[in-house]
Structures are given as C-alpha cells and as structure tokens.
Amino acid sequence: YQVKEVATKPYDGQKPGTSGLRKRVKVFQQEHYTENFIQAIFDSIKADGATLVIGGDGRYFSPETVQTILRIGSANGVKEFIIGKDAILSTPAASNVIRKYKADGGILLTASHNPGGPNNDFGIKYNVSNGGPAPENVTNRIYEATKTIQKYKVIEADPVDLSKIGKTTYGPSQVQIIDSVKDYVELLEEIFDFPLIKDFLNNNAQSFRVLFDGLHGVTGPYARAILIGKLGLPEAAVQNCVPLPDFGGGHPDPNLTYAHSLVEVVEKNNIQFGAASDGDGDRNMIYGKNAFVTPSDSVAIIADSANVIPYFKKGGVKGLARSMPTSKAIDLVAKKKGLECFEVPTGWKFFGNLMDAGRLSICGEESFGTGSDHIREKDGLWAIVAWLNILAAANKESPNKLIGIKELLQKHYSIYGRSFFSRYDYEEVSSEGANKLVALLNDAIKTSSLANTTHHSKSTGQDYKISSVTSFSYKDPIDGSVSTNQGQIVLFDDGSRVVFRLSGTGSAGATVRMYVERYVGPEAGPEELGRDTAEGLKGLIEVALEITKLKEFLERDEPTVIT
Ligand code: VG1
Ligand code: CO
Q1: Which positions make up the signal peptide (predicted)?
Q2: How far is the centre of ligand 1, averaged over its atoms, from the C-alpha of 124 (Å)?
Q3: Is residue 112 among the annotated active site residues?
Q4: Which CATH superfamily groups domain 419-562?
Q5: How many angstroms is it from 484 CA to the middle of ligand 1?
Q6: Most CB atoms closer than 10 Å: which of 89, 459, 506, 554?
C-alpha cells in the first residue's frame, strides 16, 4: 500500500451543529466535500494507532462513505476499524460498541430524524471514547481544520465487503465487521427485568397489546430481536421494521405529526402501548390509545420509578438532568428524592461529563430523547423497554386492575402536579426573519423592556405578567467550559416559561423553536390536570406570539410541527 496525498480546497460551512454535520446528500457528493470533513476529523484527534467504530442509520450515501473513511482513516494511521454489518449501527448501539470494545472514538453516518435519499439529508458525526458526541472543543477543532485544509491522505485498497462478519486486513489496518444488533440486545438484557416484562405481556396478550413502529429507520432489527425474540411478542407487534436507505420516503421522526403510521394503527386497533423511534434510533415516542406521553413527563416518570429497573436497583440513581427547554417535571422528582438535578443546553453532548463524573444517571430532552448513563447517547429502545418494565412492575402490584399509560400518567400528576408542555417548530423559515426575532428578544434582555409588563389574552381572558427575559448560558460543572446564547427564556410571574431557540440540526434555511411550559399543582384536581395540552397552554401561546411578533417576522401563521 501507499499513502497518497490529494490536493483540495476548503468548503464553507462545515461546522458541526447540535449533533454533527448535516447537509443535503448533494452537498456531500461535491468533489472532495466528504473527504475534506473526514480528513478534518483525523486532523483533530489522535488518529495514529487508534481504534475507531463506524456505523450509522443506513441512509443513502452511507456505504460509499464508509469506504471513504477507510481509505482516509487508514492513511492517517488508524489501527483498527470496528464496523457494523452493512454500515449499520443505531446511535445508541454505536455508543455501546465504543465503550464495550474500548475504542478511541467513532464516526456515525446519520442525520437522525431528517429524511434520507438522494434528494434529502446525510450527516457525519464524531463520538469520543466515552461513547458520547464530541464536546464543543473537539467539534470546534474539526471546524477550524475544515477552514484551512489543503490536502487529504488516502491509501489505495480494495473496498471492504461490509456484509461479511469477521476480521480482515485493509492496507496497514485491521477491519472487524460485527453483528449490529447482538451487543445492544445483551446490554438491554442486563439493564431491565426481561422475565417480569415477558410474563406481564404474556398474561395480558389481549388487554395490553404492543405496537412498535420502526419508521423504516435503523431500529427495526433491534426492536425485532428484543420485542419478538426476547419478550415473545407476536409479529403483529412491529411494523415498518425493515431499514431503508430513504426510510420509505418518510420523515423518520417519532412525534404525532411524522409518525402517523403508528398513530393511525394505535387509534384504529385500540392499541394500549404504541411506540416509535427515529432514523438513527436515539429518539422515542410512547403513545397509547388516548394517551400521549410528552417526553418531559416520560423522563420524570422513569426517574420516579427507577427502583423497579434492575440496573438502578443495583447501582442507585446518582442524579437527574434535563436540557433547558425541557419541562421541569423531572426537577420535582429530583427534589422529592433528594437528588441533584442539572439543567444543560440542548444536545446530548452536555450530559456526558456529568455521567462520567458519576453525578448523573437519568436524563432527557423534550425532543423525544430519553436515556441514562448505560451509554452516552439518548436511547429510543431503552426508553420504550423502561416503560414496559415500569408498567409490568406496576401491574404486579395491581393484579385486579390493569395499569396502562394513562393510569400511570394520572398517578404521576396526582403526586407531582403537571407541567403542560408544547413545542412549536417553524421549519425552514428565512434566516433574516429568524434573526429579527432573536434581535427583538436580545433587545428586550438588554433594556429590560418586557420585564414587569402584563399581557392580556383575548381567548382565555387571563392576564400574563412577565418577570424577566434572559439568555441561557451554561458552565459545565466538571470541566468549567462555558456555552453562551443557548436560547432566550421569557419567564412569567406564575413560573410559566416560553423559550425560543434556533435549531442546530436543520440543513436548509433557519428553524425556530418555541417551547411553552405551564405548571399546575396537584391540588388543582384530576379534571384540571387531565386537560388537553393545547387548551392548557392556549393563552400563554397567544401572548408569546404577540410579544415577539413571531408571525410577522417569520411570515408564518402556523408552525410546521407541534409536539
Ligand atoms: C434537535 C433537538 C435536540 C436534540 C437534537 C439531536 O436539535 O431539539 O434536543 O438533541 O435535535 O437529536 P435542534 O438544534 O435542531 O433543536 V437527533 O435524534 O437529531 O440526533
Ligand atoms: Co436521532
């Protein structure tokens, strides 16, 4: 073999966002574009002698990119590549493999929930040795390297057959193709009480039916192995579980808008427990007939019931955390249990240091991300099986009345109260409009012009008084690093919040997210606590839209997605 140097020129905009570099496939297909970014990764880490994991959600342009990584990585001195069969490893599975095989890092080929196929998105993300997304100092280094790159290194070698499990040599490097599913299934088996769940599902085969929708993302084979293979559910318990490079033309995002294939069947067939995951398998939605679990509640309920999960029974719960826009439901659980609770910026990378330091066990984001310190990524199937474990345990305590999703939610609200929560996404709006909105809020922060002002909602007849508008900054308690401008928070005097953020995962234009939260205490009673979310938040949303002139700036009457 021979190392060859190829001359190249920098491309603009190769800055990793909330979770890696995500662009249209056509952008990645430009001459040297993908090669530049991969070389920039190797320029930013210690590549010489490294062991690297490679996987992804199997989306279009993945197999050829694996070969590109092999050519460049090998030329940069990588000693061993551990690759998921057919270039497939869900994001949580990859995080597990990095940890289990003690690799130095991993490259994940995914744009998560963004649509795939030749006209849609591709993505490349670097994870570090703890199995988590690279922290900002690493992604900044990669970005800096893309700005000055003049050449990349390759070796000439035959492509590796990604479909054959086993070891081969590749130029000066070793390649190991592994079963994509096996290690992950073993991991979940160690965490949860599979016999308890299996018994429960078996004894309630009619009254508690399960449906998992893979949305043609990467989780299909994992869900099959666990739900059917280990927990004994019938074939009918899974759908859309064959991963496709374009996700069957769909938008593999588990929410009420994009996971309509699940929602329809749950409603039509009265399914008690429905669940879905996103393209790369790190998100989850829990949704049963007449019972939608908002992700902020989901993580709070898992934290509250952690003692029935063997992993936490054994290791204890060290601390809890959420991303800033996520509702404060989990804070109330932490308070009651006397646990530390952290509020970090959006993006899973901010949880890693806390976990590594032994201060965080369970955490979540409002964006359908839930997880724990068993790995360093959020984990869709982990959350789904956690719910099954918790429901199985609750039903063991209640042999005469079936406890479903709804009963569990009601019980939680009756103890802790309820944080009504909703997110409005305005996708692919003009950057100019988005910047005007941000400027208005920043001005209100600087001049305190909105503090102590009262706003009337016509639809509810109520008044809403703003106490402050602030910009969220975070200082990592472990390494002291500071992240500023992580979203603007409009705080009301009753504790309600409206948060505004610009998305960091989009691939075109700007996406504005508005997060709305209003807390109602347990004393309000079941009727008030059981209200429809949209109804519970109506007045607050009306006021938030008005004071920010959002519709005018973004030229949109309605959001693209409401979750
Ligand atoms: C979004 C979510 C964020 C999540 C990120 C990656 O980011 O809001 O909570 O961590 O996606 O999730 P943003 O910057 O677009 O708001 V995934 O499943 O796309 O890796
Ligand atoms: Co994802």
Answers
A1: none
A2: 14
A3: yes
A4: Alpha-D-phosphohexomutase, C-terminal domain (3.30.310.50)
A5: 17
A6: 89
